[in-house]
Amino acid sequence: MVNGAVAPGNARVAAAGLRVLLALSPAKLVLLIIAIKAVAWTLAPALTHLAVPLDVAEGYGSGRAWVLATDKHPNLPGLILEALRLATGATRWPAYAISQLFVAGTFLAVFALGRDMLGPARAATGTLLLSGIAFYAWPTVEFNHNIAQILLWALVPLAAWRAVEQGKLHWWLLLGALAGVSLYAKLSSLLLLAAIAGWILWDSNARRTLATPGPWIAAGLFALLATPLAAWLVTHNGEPLAYMADRAAQQPSLAPFFGGLALNIGGLIALLGMIGLLRPMLKPSQADGGQPDRAVVFLSVTTLVPLLLAVVYALVARSGLKSAWSSSMFNYLGVLVVALAGRHFTREHLDKAAVAALGLAVLVPLGYAGVVLAGPTRNGIPMRVNWPQAEIAKRFVDLWGRETGLPLRVVGGGPWAADLIAMDAPGAPVVLSRSIRGASDETIAETGILLVWDARKEVPPMVQALAGDREIRSERFAQKRGRRADDIVVNYVVLPPAGAAKP
């Protein structure tokens, strides 16, 4: 009887809450669901991770070196993480929080541009449909260049559209600033900038703005901001470009790229079917006389042209592409498909999209947390986020102190193990790895260096160069999750300051 009475009561409360939710204006509905999503995806990793993800660890390492770029990418994410470390004194939850702020900002930018073009109800529906895209969920626990890029990839089209439509100088200035900063997130932002430049030349209204100062001021500001990065690339032989080409060449064909693409946006297509917009989107009515054609063209250009340019590059270079490289390209896909649905759209479509987005915002983070806590392994190797980061850092800091009598100032060797230790060690030691040159040879000679790496990996070239014939030792760490997880073994070499006795 009790259970039978409680269940209907809970159902009535849930139904009442749902009615209140769906009575909200489109803007408030989007804000609420974005906030729930951001909180859920911040808490899921913050409460379950024993170690930060790989890209977060590397980001803290490169940020601490205050470098403009590494051999992989420009360093905007690393600089943001280091600024957060200095501001908060913490190195874990701020990384998860800033990632979700970037995702939330992306959704808000998409809603803002969609509202300009289609009105609030359609814009809200297109924004919430992004909840079906896999990239905006599971991967967002890892603040990296892809996450840093999505916000800028959303803001640049918003600024470009408003600059053209409103003709206000402040929008042109914002466009130039955002375009310049976007390069520091990831160089592939050039694909989006090329697409928007092409649209400005093609669209008659946009083309007329070239007779005004706005576009030229924006271009000048962009050039000013891009110059330091361009100079760095020249002096460092274009290392990030070579890294990108090497990664692309490792893919045998474009098939994995398109497969990953399909998986990434498959959820959005499923949501379209669930809310009843898939067929209208595929077969828009001829009666849609009010269809905002220029808006559809702009959305299509910003969504599809960067993807097309990337594919053309791969075909010319005879290489593949990494599926994650397309992650920023679909910010406006939801708004585009709603625009294509034309007059078939109703408020009911928004309500259904909101219910689905709310469910995904709660259930998927819970599922992620469950997976992490279950501690799955591959061939006995645990998930990186289940490495005992705090224990690893403390043991090696204590070990260094016992053997040298000095504070730890430089950690090098393998990027993953070195970054974990540097993050948690007192005194904020710098990282020296293949990607990060956080200390000069003179500094290493003066302070010494702890060289560490995953024992399953080959001895890093840096260790071979610096350690010489010194003994390689190991520390073993028991796994706390996963029934078949092997112990984690970290190899290390202690190199005390020049002139100190060998350990």
Structure description:
Among the domains are: 108-136 and 153-283 and 290-360, no CATH class; 386-495, no CATH class. The protein has 503 residues and is mostly helical. It is built from 21 helices and seven strands. Residues 286-291 have low confidence and may be disordered.
Keywords:
single chain, 503 residues, mainly alpha, five-stranded mixed β-sheet, 7 strands
Average pLDDT, all residues: 90
The helix-and-strand class reads mainly alpha
Shape type: globular
User: How many strands in all?
Assistant: 7
Helical residues, percent: 55-70%
Gyration radius, in Å = 25 Å
Catalogue the unreliable spans: 286-291
How many helices? 21
Q: Biggest sheet: strands, sense, closure? A: 5 strands, mixed
Tell me the strand order in the biggest sheet.
4-3-5-7-6
CA(first)-CA(last) distance: 73 Å
> Which series of helices and strands comes N to C?
HHHHHHHHHHHHHHHHHEEHEHEHEHEE
Structural topology:
Layout: H1 2-22, H2 26-48, H3 54-64, H4 76-88, H5 93-118, H6 120-128, H7 145-166, H8 169-185, H9 189-202, H10 204-208, H11 213-235, H12 239-249, H13 255-275, H14 278-282, H15 293-317, H16 333-341, H17 347-374, E1 377-378, E2 381-382, H18 389-404, E3 410-413, H19 415-424, E4 430-432, H20 441-447, E5 449-454, H21 461-467, E6 473-477, E7 488-495
Parallel strand pairs: 3-4, 3-5
Antiparallel strand pairs: 1-2, 5-7, 6-7
Helix pairs in contact: 2-5, 2-6, 2-17, 3-4, 3-19, 5-6, 5-7, 6-16, 6-17, 7-8, 7-9, 8-11, 9-15, 13-17, 15-16, 18-19
